[in-house]
Design brief:
There is one protein chain. The protein has 854 residues and is α/β, with parallel strands linked by helices. It is 40% helix and 17% strand. The strands form six sheets. Strands 1, 2, 5, 6, 7, 8, 9, 10, 13 and 14 form a ten-stranded mixed sheet that branches. A six-stranded parallel sheet has the order 17-16-15-18-19-20, with helices on both faces. The termini are far apart.
Amino acid sequence: MQPIRTFNVSPSLPPRLEPLRRLAHNLHWDWNVESKDLFRRLDPDLWESSRHNPVLMLGTISQARLLEVVEDEGFLAQMDRADRQLEDYLQERTWYQKQRGQTPKECYAYFSAEFGLVDCLPVYSGGLGVLAGDHLKSASDLGLPLVGVGLLYQQGYFAQYLNADGWQQERYPINDFYNMPLHLERNPDGSELRIAVDYPGRKVYARVWRVQVGTVPLYLMDTNIEPNKAYDHDITDQLYGGDIDMRIHQEIMLGIGGVQMLKALGLKVTAYHMNEGHAAFSALERIRLLIQEEGLSYAQAKQVVASSNIFTTHTPVPAGIDLFAPDKMLYYLGYYADIFGLPKEQFLGLGRENTGDLSGPFSMAVLALKMATFSNGVAQLHGVVSRQMFQGLWQKVPVEEVPIAAITNGVHARSCVAKSTQELYDRYLGPNWSSVPPDSPLWDRMEAIPDEELWRNHERCRLDMILYVREHLVKHLRDRGASPSEIVQAQEVLDPYVLTIGFARRFATYKRATLWMRDLERIKRLLLGNKDRKVQFVIAGKAHPKDIPGKELIRDINHFIHEQNLEKQVVFVPNYDIHISRLMVAGCDIWLNTPRRPREASGTSGMKAAMNGLPNLSVLDGWWDEADYVRTGWAIGHGENYDDPNYQDEVEANALYELLEKEVVPLFYEHRDSDGLPRPWVAKMKDAIRLNCPFFNTARMVGEYAERAYFPASDRYHTLTVDNYAPAKELAAWKAKLGEHWFNIKIKDIDVSAVSEIEVNQTVAVKAKVDLATLTNDDVQVELYQGAIDANGDIVNAIPVVMDYQGEDTQGLSIYTANIIYTTSGLQGLSLRVLPKHQHLSSSYEPRLIAWAE
């Protein structure tokens, strides 16, 4: 029976408890110990059963319990403290205010297909989403004027369970938005705020929900409403679900709908950040609005958009990029070509590296790169990989100068460090440990933490994890209808005193989740050998529902466990989520990571482990390649790249066993004092905290995004849009002139004063004559390009030297001079190049034009 009317019923709280409502609806409680303890104290069992959801708690807790705590002075005092802490947090003077001072009003919009914030908001799949959630938390901590943009999935990603054969199965629980920390955005008249997005032959409507993340609002679109058709309800049904048509539907809603939503909310955004290519269609919609509402030409509108767009790629391989067939792009979005005044093939070229490949697919990453003023990878090694992968977009630009930067990922310290460990750091390091930089003298205080106190705290974290794993497994087995003997066995898995290795991540094949199982006899000796030197494994993670090889890895691990009778020593924890992750990165002793280098873009779980004092045991890939992997853990291999994957697996599995047998296990067990304290191990734990915590965190990361991307992009937006977009119009006209005349530039003569034999630090004078055709010196920058010559005859590790303009000769050729020196011996070389120059360019590479001497 359908209702004739619906009501949203809010919890009835006694007036004295009203602060609980405010605390529950701001996710600040997730990284504030006082607030989280308060809700746990209110009803510990309900806190666990609600998936740590204070909004659901307040809606289901008994009135008797509420009346009881109204009389509890201790509870009320804690509530008031938590409420004051939230108020102080929202009002405090911030890093952003100190950095930007009197900057004109600005707003940054951060687009992501998923956000992993708390486990009671299951609208994320893994590392990308958790990173996005941590980005918002640190943006709030730093006071950035940032808003998040995403989709609110009715079923989220999926809940994982295993059948009796160890094969991953999926359930899709329905999210009850009204009992989550969400606010439904409304118009001034009380009606739902809705947007309408054009799809072929129809409009699709979305309402807007807000998640308050400290000071940062996250706006999520929901299409599961009338008058949408049933298919359109499903656009925000499952994260990464459905076929390629559903994927393009979702990305249209995220990008195009996201821009429309920001406009409907009245937000004047000055910088747009696309976290991965899923939101790249936002650029098309922004161009459309500038053309149709501001009267700009396509070139002018594109200039404004590109100058204020930021793109972060997380993909180290082309296979990870969303690609759409040309006919599909034209069917769904071909009308943009008409609005832009572009031929269809030129429009499709916006998403092609080779614009002449008329049958090539449309790449979301390529569109994002072409529409961004700043692009970056998420680790230094990933930056190298990304520059190689996308070099074709900048023809004739040396790969090391391809304008894709690297901002190494981080994690939000207050979200991932265990409560007891945070309290330990607060006592000995002070309350600011989670945000101070690596060079702060605060980190010298690590030695003040007594070894025994740090170790006993870690042992408690290990026990907490094991107790949870046992309870979690028992529930999973009961739900599956397992036998009583299996349930009894699950109650005894893992030993609280044994070296515990953690492995938890997405089960993609390149992450090689079964590498440690390659030599069964050798690993069994570690698991079952000397009774005083055993190891055990805690493993968790999900495979994408359509990733059969990933599912086979999960099954292989579970078969190994049962066939070798290792149920107590190796545990696969089903339905990995944020809560399980936090227990594991605090409770394990070692964090294992075995990706196939260089395919791990970053790998943030290892950072979380290090913040809790866990040494990492990892292949030199992602973030670990730039960490101090000697003092804070162990490196598997030496950063080699292999052509033969099977040989690579053999070599690196053997390296893993060698490290476990000869270094890790002995350090954990053999060097203990009379109190059983492994002091050398604790010293490595302290190094893991001291050297990794201050750098691999989102306080540093988001600050870097702000200084390198948000501030410059926002400033460019303000600069280009003044006086009715006059600077943008002038820059677009200049680029048009540049494109028309650039290829008439001729480098006529280069005179080098030295002969082929010179000495180190000898000055070499260079004079060049350049025919700029109809361009002028104000349009270009002429550079010498000097460096060593490699085995292929190419200049490497080059240094550009700007040449000085000396006027024109009698033939109208522009004269340029420079003096250079070489500081190292050996075979060296130089070349000469001409680059565009304009005061409003984000870089000389923005026009994608370069002329080299031949």
